[in-house]
Amino acid sequence: QLFQYADKDYQTFSQALIPGGKPLIGVRLPQLRKLAKDIVRDKNVDERAILADPEEDQYMEEIMLRGMLIGYGSSKSGDIDEALKMLDEFVPMVDSWSVCDSCCVSFTLFQKHREQVYQHIQKYLFSNKEFEVRVGLILLLDHFLKCDEKGEKLPRRRSIECSDILGEEGHEREPEEGLYIDRILDVLNRPYPQGYYAQMAAAWLTAECFVTFPEKTWDFLKDNQMDLFTYSKSLQKICESRIPSDEVKKLIRAKKRKA
Description:
Blueprint (H helix, E strand, L loop, with lengths): L7 H10 L11 H13 L5 H4 L9 H18 L2 H11 L6 H8 L9 H7 L1 H4 L4 H14 L18 H5 L14 H8 L7 H17 L1 H9 L5 H13 L5 H8 L6
């Protein structure tokens, strides 16, 4: 069925962006998500049967579809313990940034059980394996970062000015409230020797922290234990965003470390 949606040009383009891992068929992500959701909704299809034998998965899209079925299926069942068990079975199959990022976002059930999930993924966040660390960080990005003290969804800022990180003269900065931002910054406050894709996930998460909680992330950028590469990529990703003003970006660039 996946081969029915194959796009040769997309396959060639994507293969160049995703080195290593399994070969690609060339199925676009929206089509994969639709297929996964259709399978989960279909009462005549047993998605567990599809998931039965992971050793038969020969293509990256099969691994992606597996992760999406677990994520969307767990949201349908509402069984968080089973979802975490299946996550543990799936994580060793993650061998590329694309599989990681496309599947982590589908675990929306985690948002109803954040504390249990947060404790569960510590083993990934502090693993010595590159893609286990990336899975943990992307789960934080997708399901933990953007929520307020009550756990309600919190959007990114539309703009960030110098006053948002430094405060206005004669006035203290407005306190920022987020349920997990302090813990996320604590997780980020370390070197990332596991590999490039763990480092880039940490940089991406740091940049998203900045555009959601600029004050706290600014303080973090002033004093942290990140390795030079991850720290430099974090600054770069912040400056690539359209949300910080040019003046804020100048302050960010001035935070560059020397090798």
